[in-house]
Design a protein that fits this description.
CATH topology of the domain at 113-252: FAD/NAD(P)-binding domain
Structural class: alpha/beta
Largest sheet: 4 strands, parallel
Oligomer: single chain
CATH architecture of the domain at 113-252: 3-Layer(bba) Sandwich
Strand content: 15-25%
Distance between the termini: 32 Å
Helix content: 25-40%
Radius of gyration: 22 Å
Number of strands: 26
Strand order of the largest sheet: 12-11-10-16
Length: about 400
């Protein structure tokens, strides 16, 4: 999306720009954990009010832009002839192609994950989690469910941490509403490795760990999961833990369509690209985002799957297409400094900024809100951006 918007600015009438996506909207994934833990809004069969806060129609984003939007599911990619085929049987051809197919949940081959665990990748996933959390507390309030309510979150990356922390705020509010005693819900988060959030500093990890502990979240490190059952998980060391609800946030893999695309150079399912984000072996084809493996030569590791990195790659891909059209040399993708903001329940976040500086607590949360607003302003007209941001803030802070 960012690549399309930048190309439209640079090329205007010189090119026909088309974005193809199976959805009619852009899902604002950084707020997905808020949907799963939202409280105090009037329910409707289609969750329209919630959906409007994180599902931004492409028609609004591309309003008055010279960008064609095609809603279709891609089932085949022909790199040699620069063509794609959709499930409806249509073919689209191009001179330049950008592959930004994203990622999907992976179960790492662990039995029971798909059958029994709640996934956390789409709007429907988040809504199902929210409904289950609410129904468990209603049943407990009616005496139909024994206490404590046990929620197990498998995967202690940023996604799992954000979700577990925000759910802890949600369940406190639900307990009060359902006349349940304080502490009636136990939330446990599992990490297979020795430490949660292994990529961050020890000082920052301690801040987040202490915050989770204060919220009542139980952290289980060195606890790889071997099997998931309907109401329990089994760890590799033989321990088992029961749960009323199991949520899987443990990992993602590149879109499976890439495995069936002839001629792609893949590593662990992701497209290998050069310094300019061009697909190895093909001219005028680029790959960006979660479906791409770009190695950071300073640490010899792939860049993490984070939104600001994908945006930057989109900008670089657009610039290189523009340069090629105008006979200029391509531009290497410049790895941005590691900057992230991790919400940790309520109006609390930890912001890792430039030069290793960190801001925690309420002001970290304010910075996260400002980052979200800035993003909305970058893709929408002023009034629409502020409207969505205001509605999102009003709805999602009710349980803070």
């Amino acid at each position: 999306m960012k690549a399309a918007l930048d190309l439209e600015k640079k090329l205007g009438k010189e090119a026909e720009i088309t974005l193809v996506d199976k959805s009619s909207y852009h899902l604002f994934i950084p707020a997905l954990y808020e949907v799963a833990s939202v409280y105090g809004i009037e329910r409707d069969p289609f969750a329209v009010k919630i959906s409007k806060t994180i599902c931004i129609p492409f028609v609004d984003i591309f309003e008055n832009k010279k960008i064609n939007f095609v809603q279709a599911e891609i089932i085949e990619i022909d790199l040699t002839n620069k063509k794609i085929r959709t499930r409806g049987g249509h073919e689209l051809s191009c001179d330049y192609m950008i592959l930004a197919l994203g990622s999907q949940t992976t179960d790492f081959g662990i039995p029971g994950v798909i059958e029994y665990a709640y996934q956390f990748k789409s709007l429907n996933d988040a809504l199902m989690i929210n409904e289950k959390v609410n129904s468990l507390h209603r049943e407990a309030g009616q005496g139909k469910k024994e206490l404590p309510i046990r929620i197990l979150v498998i995967g202690a990356g940023f996604t799992g941490i954000e979700l577990a922390a925000e759910l802890s705020s949600c369940v406190k509010t639900l307990a009060h509403k359902c006349d349940l005693r304080h502490g009636c819900t136990m939330i446990t988060i599992f990490e297979a490795g020795p430490k949660i959030l292994s990529a961050i500093s020890d000082k920052e990890r301690q801040i987040i760990s202490e915050r989770l502990t204060r919220l009542g979240v139980i952290i289980m490190e060195n606890s790889p999961i071997e099997e998931v059952a309907a109401n329990s998980v089994k760890m590799k060391d033989g321990r088992a833990l029961s749960g009323d609800m199991i949520i899987w946030t443990a990992g993602i893999t590149a879109n499976k369509i890439l495995e069936n695309t002839h001629g792609l150079n893949l590593n662990k399912g992701r497209i290998v690209v050069d310094d300019n984000l061009a697909v190895i072996g093909y001219k005028n084809i680029y790959a960006i985002g979660d479906n791409t493996e770009f190695i950071d030569k300073n640490i010899h590791k792939p860049l993490p799957s984070m939104a600001y990195i994908a945006q930057g790659e989109g900008i670089t891909a657009a610039k290189n297409i523009y340069n090629t059209i105008n006979g200029a040399p391509p531009k290497a993708y410049g790895i941005p400094p590691s900057i992230w903001i991790a919400p940790a329940g309520g109006k609390f976040a930890l912001a890792h900024l430039w030069w290793g500086m960190s801001i925690k607590g309420f002001w970290g949360w304010v910075m996260r809100e400002l980052v979200d607003l800035r993003y909305m302003l970058s893709i929408l007209p002023l009034k629409k951006a502020i409207k969505i941001f205001w509605e999102e803030t009003a709805i999602f802070t009710k349980n803070d």
